[in-house]
């Protein structure tokens, strides 16, 4: 599936042909295109979460943790461009089940991030609900910026590094706010 093709417009016959199998082989693994899409979402999410977890565990808390994570994410997106185009198409116009699967994957990312932040004793005075909200904000900021990466990565030789630098700045701004966050403001 190229970046100009819509997942919903691709036939099982096309998928089978591109995979080098006959359509009946497709049905041995998937009942329909939606099931294939759900499998793509699940596999992509698991691979990326595993890689990001590895970066967080290797770096622990360091000033470079954010940059290392963003660089890994950027590289992963660039190596799996068609999958991320698919995710964006489905997030806005896919089936209810596909949209729910994508939301679930984003929740998994936020849950793992919140758990790692807690284990690394970062934001120690932030309660669990607020930590979850902060993690969701971080995941959303990165995920939403992916469209720019997909659309512009080939626009200039420096775009990829500019993307990493800008994303790191956005996340540092979120983190700065998170460090100063208090769930209840005195007098309210």
Tell me what the structure shows.
It is a single chain. The chain is mainly α. It has helices spanning 12-19, 23-29, 33-59, 65-79, 81-93, 96-119, 128-152, 159-180. Helix 1 packs across helix 2 (23-29) and helix 6 (96-119) crosses helix 7. The longest helix is centred in the N-terminal third of the chain and has 27 residues, at 33-59.
Q: Could you tell me the radius of gyration in angstroms? A: 19 Å
Largest sheet: none
- How far the N terminus sits from the C terminus, by CA atoms, comes to 52 Å
Number of helices: 8
Uncertain segments of ≥5 residues (pLDDT<50)? none
> Which term fits the overall shape?
globular
Helical content (DSSP H or I, runs of 4+): over 70%
Strand proportion: under 5%
Mean pLDDT: 84
**What structural class do you assign from the helix and strand content?**
mainly alpha
Strand tally is 0
The string of secondary-structure elements, in order, is HHHHHHHH
Q: What is the topology?
A:
Blueprint: H1 12-19, H2 23-29, H3 33-59, H4 65-79, H5 81-93, H6 96-119, H7 128-152, H8 159-180
Helix pairs in contact: 1-2, 3-4, 3-6, 4-7, 4-8, 5-6, 6-7, 7-8
Keywords:
mainly alpha; 8 helices; 0% strand
In short:
With 188 residues, the chain is mainly α. Helix content is 75%, strand content 0%.
